[in-house]
Amino acid sequence: MPSLPRSPFQLHGGCFCDAIKYTISIPELSERPVVHSHPSKPLGPRNEINELLSIIFIDHCNSCRRIAGSIVQTWFICPQSWVEFDLESRSGGSVKPAVIEFVTPDKILEELTFIKGFKSSQYASRTFCGRCGTHLTFHYSGPDQELAEKGNWGPYLNPTLGSLDEASAEIEGLRPDRQVWTGDGIGWMKRLVLDGESSFCAAKEQKLVWVIETDFVYVAILQRDNLCIGRQLTPLY
After folding, report:
1. Is the peptide bond prior to 30 cis by the omega test (within 30 degrees of 0)?
2. How far apart are the C-alpha atoms of 86 and 136, rounded to whole Å?
3. For 18, which of 4, 11, 203, 206 is 20 to 30 Å away at the CA?
């Protein structure tokens, strides 16, 4: 499975209406902090690249699901020093706040730009675009920082993976390598993550059959005499 580049690269993203944009500059491999923890629910094999920041993960927690309005949320954990924000000013021009000012915006910044903050718990701060509603970041300021302290991450944040521009989201190797809070997860979504489209075949009795259609051979799963899913294998010539 491909991994993220070893050399420096950038990711670009922002909100739907472009009032808020950001750039994440990932340094070369030797400069990325260590993640001193192995995921309890890994997705794919471990290697020297995903043992370092960033951490990309699928989050099944109920709060993130409800706040995002999506069946799961996906995050990109990275040091704040990697990230720069560029905000459209309501009066024209742009504003480039410090990251900590962005992830915990005060009333002045909210009135000057389109950023909106929301505290979903005592230590959890989230940001959104006040014009189009895009969920942009999560910031945790609580006492449980063992993982960050062990790896000497410094201050960090979680941008939403879904707010990346398409070109950045398509970079080879940019995919979740773990899932968390699976106890909160919706059953069919957890099965979909692990088993793919075959998870929608609910019948207990399955058998493989060969189906010949035009010039291709398909393998299919027959569910109680109903064709559930087919996959093209190879052309006949």
Report:
1. no
2. 13
3. 4
Edge to edge, the sheet with strand 83-88 lists 9-14, 20-26, 83-88, 94-95
| Cα separation, 11 vs 49, whole angstroms | 17
* pLDDT tens digits along 155-188: 999 999 999 999 999 999 999 999 999 999 999 9
Q: Which residues pair with 138 in a beta bridge?
A: 126, 158
- Encoded tokens for 94: 């742009």
CATH, range 9-193: 2.170.150.70
3-state SS class at 182: helix
Q: What percent of the chain has pLDDT over 90?
A: 77
Enumerate the domain spans of the chain. 9-193, 201-235
The pLDDT mean for the chain works out to: 88
Residue type, 231: R
pLDDT tens-place string over residues 52-89: 999 999 999 999 999 999 999 999 999 999 999 999 99
Length of the chain: 237
